[in-house]
Specification:
single chain; 253 residues; alpha+beta; Translation Initiation Factor IF3; Alpha-Beta Plaits; 4-stranded antiparallel beta sheet; 6 helices
Length: 253
C-alpha cells in the first residue's frame, strides 16, 4: 500500500467522524427534548399552582348551639354551730339542731337516706381566762327531686325559727348531669349553624359551600339560665343553659 493510498483512507475516516449534518441533527434532537421538558414542566407547575390556589378557597366560621335544661341533681350542705363556755352544752345544742333539721326534711317528704352527716369539728378560744367552745356540724342533702328541693330552700328559714343557726355558705347547689346525652345533638346543631353562616358568606362571594376541611369543638359550658344568684343561703337556679361553640373550616366550590 502506497503513501497516497494511506492518505486517502485517513481522509475518509476523518470525514466519517465529522459529519456536520449528523451533528446538527443530534443538537436539534437534544434541543427539542429540552424544550418539550420545559413546556411539560411549566404545564405541571402551572397546574399545580392552580390546584393549590383552588385548595386555598375556604371559609372558617363558628357555629353556636344553646339549650335550656333543668337540673337533675340538687345538693345542699347545711352548716350550723353552737358556742358555749361549757363544751357539753355546746354539743347538746348541736344535737338538738341536728334533730330539728332531720325533722324539717322528714316533714317535706325526703327519705332518711337523702340526708347524711359530712363532718364535725370543735374549736376553742380563751379570753380573760374564759374558754369558749364552738361545735360545728355539717349535714348534706342529695336528691334528684328538684321540685322538692326548691320547696325546702323556700322554707329554709323555718330552720331558723326552730333555733338552728345556719352559717354562711349553707346554700343549695343545682347540677345538670345529662350532658353526655345531649352532646351529639348539640354538636350537630352547632355544625348546621356554622354551615348556614358559611353559606351566606359563599353567596356574597359567588361561591358555594363544599365539604368540611377541618373542625374544632369548643368547650361545653353550663351556666344559670337567668344569671347567677346566691349569698346568705339563697340557692342558685335549677334552670341552666348549656352552650357550645364549634369552629368549622369549609371548602368553597
Amino acid at each position: 500500500m502506497t503513501d497516497d493510498t494511506n492518505q486517502e483512507i485517513a481522509t475518509e475516516t476523518a470525514a466519517a467522524r465529522f459529519d456536520p449534518g449528523s451533528t446538527t441533527l443530534r443538537w436539534f434532537g437534544t434541543a427539542t427534548i429540552a424544550a418539550i421538558g420545559l413546556v411539560l414542566g411549566g404545564y405541571l407547575l402551572g397546574d399545580g399552582l392552580l390546584r393549590a390556589k383552588e385548595a386555598e378557597r375556604s371559609v372558617t366560621v363558628r357555629g353556636l348551639a344553646e339549650r335550656d335544661v333543668t337540673a337533675d341533681l340538687a345538693t345542699w350542705t347545711i352548716s350550723y354551730s353552737a358556742s358555749s363556755s361549757d363544751l357539753a352544752q355546746a354539743q347538746g345544742k348541736v344535737r338538738r339542731d341536728t334533730d330539728a333539721i332531720e325533722a324539717f326534711f322528714d316533714d317535706l317528704g325526703f327519705p332518711e337516706a337523702a340526708l347524711q352527716p359530712t363532718g364535725a369539728n370543735v374549736s376553742s378560744y380563751t379570753s380573760d381566762g374564759v374558754t369558749t367552745y364552738t361545735v360545728r356540724q355539717r349535714l348534706s342533702l342529695r336528691t334528684e327531686d328538684i321540685e322538692r328541693a326548691q320547696k325546702a330552700v323556700a322554707q329554709q328559714f323555718d330552720l331558723v325559727g326552730r333555733g338552728v343557726f345556719l352559717e354562711e355558705g349553707s346554700g343549695m347547689s343545682y347540677s345538670f348531669t345529662g350532658l353526655n346525652e345531649i352532646k351529639p345533638e348539640m354538636v350537630a346543631e352547632a355544625t348546621r349553624d356554622a354551615r348556614a353562616s358559611a353559606q351566606q358568606f359563599a353567596e356574597d362571594s359567588g361561591a358555594s359551600v363544599g365539604a368540611i376541611k377541618d373542625a374544632t369543638q369548643g368547650y361545653f359550658t353550663i351556666e344559670a339560665r337567668d344569671g347567677d344568684s346566691g349569698g346568705w343561703g339563697v340557692s342558685d337556679s335549677p334552670f341552666k343553659k348549656v352552650r357550645v361553640v364549634t369552629t368549622v373550616n369549609f371548602s368553597l366550590d
